[in-house]
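Deliverable D2.4 — example input (structure tokens):
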């Protein structure tokens, strides 16, 4: 169902997919941090941690956005949780 030109179901699915992609990136960066640790590069380690933090913040924001979209569309039959 569309409200003011917004298809809530499509929006929810899209946001959920972005959350899942973000979590995948977080796991991948963690793995790369462990793999590259023996290289001893402090800069590389810091940058990987910075990237992980940025993605974690983005995922958190997307989860908040999904919560608000769910709140706005309570009459809709589709509710997607990122958990």
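Example output (designed residues):
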């Amino acid at each position: 169902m569309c409200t003011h030109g917004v298809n809530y179901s499509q929006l929810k699915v899209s946001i959920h997919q972005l959350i899942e992609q973000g979590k995948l990136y977080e796991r991948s960066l963690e793995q790369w941090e462990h793999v590259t640790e023996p290289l001893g590069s402090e800069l590389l380690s810091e940058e990987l941690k910075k990237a992980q933090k940025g993605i974690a913040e983005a995922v958190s924001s997307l989860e908040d956005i999904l919560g608000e979209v769910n709140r706005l569309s309570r009459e809709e039959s589709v509710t997607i949780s990122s958990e």
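The chain is about 70% helix and 5% strand.
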